[in-house]
Amino acid sequence: MSGFSSFGTCFITSYLFYNTNYAAYIASGTAFSSNYKIMKGLVCSCDTLGNITGLYLNISTGYIPSKWGITLPGFGAISQNTGALLNLNSNFYTVGTSLTASNITFPGVGPNMVNAVGVFSIPLPVALDSNVLIKMTGNPSTTNLPFTFTGTCAVYYNGAKTSAGCNFVSVPTEVSFTLTIL
Amino acid sequence: MNLFTDIYCAVLIPQNTDIVNGYGTLPIVATTTPKNTLTITTSNSQDWTDYVTNTNPLVSSVTGSNTNTPGSSLIQNAAAPQSLVFSFKALFSSVTTFSSTTGTAVTNGWGMMIVMSPSIEFDTATSATISTKQPVSNSLSATAISVTNASAYNQYTLVTMTGTIVENFQNIFMTTATKTAFGLYPFRVKAFSSIYADSNNQDIMIATIDGINGPQNRMTYNGYFLINGFTQAATAAGTLNMGFINYQSSSAMDGSKVPTMLRIKGTVTNNSTAFDSLTVFFDTLTPFFSNKHSGEIYCYNSDSTVPCIYHQGPLTLTSGLIEKYNYMALSRFSITLNTPAAAFNILIPVTFTGAKTDTNFYVAYQVRNTTNGYKSLAYVEALRTISISQTATLSGSFGPVVTAASVGQSVSNLQLRATSPSNLSINTANNIGAAFSYFSEWDYL
């Protein structure tokens, strides 16, 4: 990480944000809930220069996760030298480029075939970090699909079936696959 | 107090490491069991404190003369004699069974014994006799002795104050509880108190006795009072800076977005060879634990990879009023530094309850005795109170610039926007909170 040296020093650190409602759960039977997040980040202290208007830091290589879709997790904050928290906000940007799934394979069907038996194979364009909803629609999306789905689905990795869950719902205009990462 | 009459044999067994304290020790192990141990009477300390005037029950005055005007703390200063100033708010009835009627003679006398660590030494080099400054002059007679010879069976400082009629001690212990102060001079405070139960501890035990002149079977102990020696440095080193980053007082900062950080930076040049760890006493903070059983907490330390340790104090402040003057009873962080003479930075993420403006601290450090491994405080600064009244605004534009990226992509030269919408002042002295922070449950770095 670079770009702050003229203002001061950046300290990279982490902590575990963890809490539960265990007391309420025990006392009154409230449904158990918890938070568990290993928070990673940096604190860049303005020890040599103050105002940091128009500043962009540089991360040599950053990986954009797929777990959260296009709205990435993260919060930034600005603190005055007295320690007072002035500004706090979530990420300003969302992931801007859509992914394209290619090399989809279809079951062989003829023009008069009512029921085709075969496999739809959809190579995922990105590694899965979390549960994912995949929708297959016509173009435009209000158009009825030329088929309906029955059967089962599964997730494969390097040719082997994985334990990830796969369910789908088919309606005339859309097939929705829900992949569950266990 | 019942005296123990049986003979009790014990042996000392050397061992290399005490797993609790981390240093070698000589535990006492009983080899016989007393046969007639029927009762061991204990007595809880009475509460003679009164912090309304923000005065610890024992402070010192460095004026170099006999006074009962309290200073700010018990000042560690081996080079100059001081007055020890005790400030009590104790009822007459708590220290004696004699009648409070004026002129009542006290059979065999009344006395108060004050037993202290020999590191608070009666300074015979300045005066062979003790002087007192009492609410009414010469009410009580005082004697003092310090036993500091290493070959003595015990080392201690003992002050005995006696009176012959009730008026003598009614001037200090009144029938209606009133805070009074008396001074004892001259004493030298030669060391800081230890925060451990060892020989460097400066606990001060006080007992009041009816019939102090004896015989022993007619002596009655009435008042007991145990206080800590709240030793502090005469002057701040000026090289230890501390402050918050990301503090707001209007609502709790629970760390779910960004943490509030306690930042400590500076150098320690004195005692750097024997230096062991920074110690920060505080009243109302909670750290993030990496191991709650051992007290290890999340902490950035530029000078050591040894985990920072949290020690919970016995006092939980709800009123935020009084106990902040008793740093011994506050919670504390212990922070190991390998090279304290070099500039260091410490960042400790913390949480606190909402609507909290003031946080109280004592910055201190400990040294370790290279012979016996005992740790002891070598420096304690005066109370610091950080007051921040602030509500943050939901504003600013931060985070990774991903408008041209897609999920699952590795991006070279990924930009992280850190644009402040506010004017920031450069960090200086204890105002070291000016900073940009960015935290996420995803590790972009």
TL;DR of this structure?
The complex is a heterodimer of chains A (182) and B (445). With 182 residues, chain A is mainly β. Chain A has one helix at 22-28, and strands spanning 9-20, 34-45, 56-63, 75-79, 85-90, 132-137, 156-157, 160-161, 165-171, 174-180.
Helix content of chain B: under 10%
| Alpha-beta content class of chain B | mainly beta
Strand content of chain A: 35-45%
Q: Summarize the largest interface: chains and residue counts.
A: A-B, 80 and 80 residues
Order of helices and strands of chain A: EHEEEEEEEEE
| Percentage of residues in helical conformation of chain A | under 10%
The profile of the biggest β sheet of chain A is: 3 strands, antiparallel
Q: Main sheet of chain B, how many strands, which sense, barrel?
A: 8 strands, antiparallel
Rg of chain B (C-alpha, Å) = 27 Å
The quaternary organization reads as heterodimer
Mean pLDDT of chain B: 85
- The dominant shape of chain B is elongated
